[in-house]
Design goal:
The complex is a heterodimer of chains A (274) and B (311). Chain A is mainly alpha-helical. Chain A has one domain. Helices cover 79% and strands 0% of the residues of chain A. Classes of the chains: A mainly alpha (274), B alpha/beta (311).
Chain lengths: 274, 311
């Protein structure tokens, strides 16, 4: 395995995606909303509106908390209603939405890297290089994985800062992130990033344009929506154990999909699709 | 001379279509070998088979004695391929394109920059090295693609339609570069093209293909002789010769027919060796000869004669 070639392919793909502003600028809008707009909205609202109005809109806070597992419910003990609202919304309700980001970033870069290369008719020269099929594949996976994970982590960092600053008046201390966020950031997020890439690799073999690949990979958001609904209805709460379990399942799915992707990533198959 | 490429009964089938159908040929070191044929003749598929990009359905191939099916990487380290479309990364600069392929070709990191500068200079692209390729003209892109194919100094170069889509000036420039490479470096080149003038100018030998098969192979002279064993020679006189000059020639050994018109005489002979005899006979009979011109067949004549025979 020639790692110099793998890094060269990854670096080249990253440079190319960086130049393709039409692909990644729209993808930055959502993280800005998640990391800045929503936390400001949910922390400032209870500080400027009467709590009763918010309760009327959202439902009784006590009823919502009843759905939580006892260990998580304990976090809310002794808090004022305004604090409960901020903690509930920023630390729990928004958490699964953040998993959209690794999926989105990895599918933007992955689609550009795998299908875009074919679309721009640059694939053939790459196939004539001495890099092995595995080196080509790993280079392209790395090119999508690195920005997907690092941009997701950057969004988390901004979110953590914004939540703490915006709610400082209310809590009087730095209180976020809660322990449940660590496995979410460092176990589940990389797993979702790889899921986005492996799905893109599978889809790339069957579609011809970047947009088709991007849109089809976007359908994975259904998984995230499932987690959001599960959390909102109290069916599935993203506590530490649940995050670890879901993460493990996604990692297993990643391994299966990546192995299938490697099997399909053969020069002889790629060249006939040019 | 030793064979760089040896191909024996090579075939590649896609569904019902035999894209390459039992090709047998060899290419010697330092030779410029042309694969000529219409679109879909199997030229590009042959290049892909020889580089180990596609496995063959039947037959064998050896490039530098290596099997493309199992030793593709080793072969691609020693070959440079100019693809039909330049296949350059348009959002990157010329330098970034070349640095990327230099790295894939395992040029040591400490040498990459120097080699890139050197080749940009050779292809007269140094002043645009840091400009994005999307701002380049078609001719510049083709020159850069050729530079990419040569970045690792491969001993074997595959050129797939090197002047396709270029204006005559840019095409001339690219052909000059190829000619310089082959004459200065003794590089072995396989040229896949349907541009017959280009092939005639650059190739030592050609294989004329249709529907995946080789119809004929050899140098221009060999192919002409194969197709037209008899030779025509046009003779121009300084002053109109006597009436019976054509008639007297017909009696000469090796002369098939002769016809005179004003100061010109067209003579069909069995082979070129007869021409000096014809000239001697005419001079002995008092003719004042201005010009003797054996008729040359162009690759175009040969190509169309073969393709018409195939049809």
């Amino acid at each position: 395995m020639n790692w110099r070639s793998i890094w060269a392919i990854a670096r080249k793909d990253l440079k190319e995606v960086q130049q393709n502003k039409a692909a990644w600028i729209p993808a930055l809008v959502l993280p800005l909303i998640f990391a800045i707009v929503l936390p400001i909205l949910f922390t400032v609202l209870p500080q400027v509106l009467p709590v009763e109005d918010i309760q009327r809109e959202l439902g009784d806070m006590e009823t919502l908390l009843k759905n939580l597992p006892p260990t998580i419910r304990a976090i809310f003990d002794g808090l004022k209603l305004e604090q409960m609202f901020v903690l509930y919304m920023t630390a729990f309700m928004l958490a699964p939405l953040f998993l959209i980001m690794p999926l989105m970033f990895s599918s933007v870069v992955g689609a550009d890297s795998f299908v875009g290369e074919r679309e721009r008719k640059t694939m053939e020269a790459l196939l004539y290089s001495p890099a092995t099929d595995m080196e080509l594949f790993l280079g392209k996976v790395l090119a999508a994985l690195i920005p997907a994970i690092s941009l997701s982590w950057l969004t988390y960092l901004v979110y953590i800062i914004v939540v703490n600053v915006a709610s400082f008046n209310l809590f009087g201390r730095v209180w976020f992130p809660l322990p449940t966020w660590w496995p979410l950031m460092f176990w589940l997020t990389p797993a979702f990033a790889l899921l986005g890439i492996s799905a893109t690799v599978m889809i790339s073999a069957r579609v011809k344009t970047f947009m088709e690949a991007y849109q089809l990979t976007g359908s994975l958001v259904v998984l995230v929506l499932g987690l959001v609904i599960g959390q909102a209805t109290g069916v599935l709460y993203l506590g530490v154990e649940t995050v670890m379990l879901v993460g493990t399942l996604i990692w297993i799915l990643d391994v299966v999909l990546i192995r299938a992707g490697i099997r399909g990533f053969k020069r002889s198959m790629l060249i006939t699709k040019l | 001379m030793s064979a760089v490429i040896e191909v024996n009964a090579l075939a590649r089938v896609f569904g019902q279509n035999r894209a390459v159908d039992g090709m047998t040929f060899h290419v010697e070191q330092g030779e410029v070998f042309g694969l000529l044929g219409p679109n879909g003749a199997g030229k590009t598929t042959t290049v892909r088979l020889l580089n180990g990009i596609l496995p063959p359905s039947e037959g064998t191939a050896r490039v530098f004695g290596l099997d493309p099916t199992t030793q593709g990487e080793d072969i691609r380290r020693r070959t440079g391929v100019l693809t039909e479309t330049p296949a350059l990364y348009e959002r990157l600069s010329a330098r970034e394109n070349l640095e990327f392929f230099a790295t894939l070709q395992a040029i040591p990191a400490s040498d990459v920059s120097r080699r890139v500068d050197e080749i940009l200079e050779f292809f007269e692209l140094a002043s645009r090295a840091n400009d994005k390729v999307e701002t380049f003209s078609k001719g510049m892109k083709q020159r850069l693609a050729l530079a990419r194919a040569l970045i690792h100094r491969p001993p074997l170069l595959f050129l797939d339609e090197p002047t396709s889509g270029l204006d005559p000036e840019a095409a001339q420039q690219v052909n000059d570069l190829i000619e310089n490479l082959t004459s200065a470096n003794g590089q072995t080149v396989m040229l896949a093209t349907h541009n017959l003038f280009e092939a005639q100018r650059l190739c030592d030998r050609v294989a004329i293909m249709n529907k995946g098969r080789i119809l004929a192979m050899g140098s221009l002279k060999e192919l002409s002789r194969k197709l037209w064993p008899v030779t025509w020679v046009d003779i121009t006189f300084h002053v109109k010769p006597s009436e019976n000059v054509a008639g007297s020639l017909k009696a000469q050994r090796g002369v098939i027919q002769a016809s005179a018109e004003d100061e010109a005489l067209a003579v069909q002979v069995e082979n070129e060796d007869v021409i000096p005899e014809v000239v001697r006979h005419l001079i002995n009979n008092g003719a004042s000869i201005l010009k003797v011109n054996p008729r040359d067949y162009t690759l175009e004549d040969i190509y169309f004669a073969l393709q018409a025979g195939e049809a």
